[in-house]
Amino acid sequence: MISKKFKDMCNTPSVIRALAGYANERGKEIGYGNVFDYTLGNPSVPVPEEFNKAIRDLTTELSSSALHGYSPNPGNPEARSIIADSLKRRFGIPYEQKHIFMTSAAASAIAHAVRCVTEPGDEVITFAPYFPEYNPYINQSGAVLKVVPANTEDFQINFDAFEQMMNKKVQAVLINTPNNPSGIAYSSATLKKLADFLYAKQEEYGHEIFLISDEPYREIVFKGADAPYVSCFYDNTLSCYSYSKSLSIPGERIGYVAVNPKAKDADMIVPMCVQISRGIGHNCPSSIIQMAAARCVDLTSDLSVYETNMNILYDEFVKLGFTVVKPGGTFYIFPKALEDDAVAFCEKAKKYDLIFVPSDSFGVPGYFRAAYCIDTEKVQRSLPVLEKFVKEEYGK
Questions:
Q1: pLDDT higher than threshold 90 for residue 78
Q2: 327 and 368 share a domain?
Q3: What is the dihedral of CA 76, 78, 84, 87, to 10 degrees?
Q4: Residues 185 and 121 in one domain
């Protein structure tokens, strides 16, 4: 008999992927250039040429077995050391090789991190709006995901609701900053308040509470945004990073867990990740991609286009009467829909070949996400279409 659990999941596919599939099919009918596809967070800017050069150089410098053989279970030692040195230099935290575990991007990093610090039945708290794939990431580990309602005023943490939901079963808090889908970065004041709260609850409950920080958008921060490094505020932090967005290499699936050296049992976390890999079939990412990413550890793609696109869309949404909090990073914007039913709003937009993602699966009804990691020229061409949609459907 096949698994009922996974069979049932086939009936609830990712809304984002389903809409991206619709956009692709619609593109076959009318030309993809005429579909204003704001669905998928797929980086639109080229990889740095240094990354391509690193791949070429590695293929000539190293033997076949070094390039394509297994790396050690925690990851390539040189790559881990280079990453640790970079984090230490950038953020002043004394990471060492032993604190870095290489993963297949941030999803795998979260999967390992949550299993390191929870037992089945423990609770993990996150904050709306949140990436909907947190549900399988957490719930399939045996832990239980609990979601704090959003603070829609500015999408910082809703501390009043958070305090009401805290209890002794909470072993970890999962945050994402800069945030998908809102684009908001948690400020220094927010992170300081969060850290103080967690320190107090650790003392009250008599056990550690780990902070799992999902950081794939760490490098996509806009001018004037306050977006500090989370581990600087709280010792029991596991940073989950991906190079997918910073280097525009999502298909290469490369990232890491970085264990704050001051965390409880810090030296045990990476060896535990190795054991967790045995159970979830992870078994270390591509050897050559680990080495190439390490050679580009302090580089990024030209990320400036995302801020350009954000400003164009933000100004247009404001002009058309949308309520929207200005993003501080990422390549997402999260306006309030022009009716209470975000699904209905997005269905109406589809008639104009504007493909947005309704907010229900992000834990905040009545909003929608637009991923503006597309060519600026296409963003600009979408504006009169957006104006027509709003005027004809909502009389604005």
A1: yes
A2: yes
A3: -100
A4: yes
For 272, left (φ over 0), alpha (ψ -120 to 50), or beta?
A: alpha
* SS3 assignment, position 159: helix
pTM (2 d.p.): 0.96
The one-letter amino acid at 342: A
CA distance 230 to 258: 11
From CA 141, how far away is CA 139, in angstroms rounded?
A: 5
Confidence of residue 350 (pLDDT cuts 50, 70, 90): very high
Q: Within 10 Å of residue 291's Cβ, how many Cβ atoms? A: 22
**Antiparallel, parallel or unpaired: β 144-148 and 170-176:** unpaired
Which residues, in sequence order, are CB contacts of 286 under 8 Å at separation 6+?
Answer: 252, 253, 254
> Is residue 265 located within the same domain as residue 310?
no
Burial bucket for residue 60 (CB in 10 Å: 0-12, 13-18, 19+): exposed
Tokens 């459907």, residue located:
393
Query: Which DSSP category does 47 fall into?
Result: P
Nearest to 332 by CA among 383, 372, 374, 377: 372
- Give residues with Cβ within 8 angstroms of 167, minimum separation 6: 123
The model's pLDDT over 238-253, given as tens digits with 9 standing for 90+, comes to 999 999 999 999 999 9
Q: Domain span at residue 378?
A: 4-47+302-394
| Spatial distance between the Cα atoms of 85 and 83, rounded to a whole number of angstroms | 5
* CB 308 within 8 Å of CB 206: no
The end-to-end CA distance of the chain, in Å, is 55
Residue 287 has pLDDT above 90, yes or no: yes
CATH number at residue 203: 3.40.640.10
Whole-Å CA distances, 16 to 62, 96, 179, 357, 386: 40, 37, 16, 6, 20
Helix (H) or strand (E) holding 354: strand 354-355
User: In terms of domains, do 320 and 178 share one?
Assistant: no
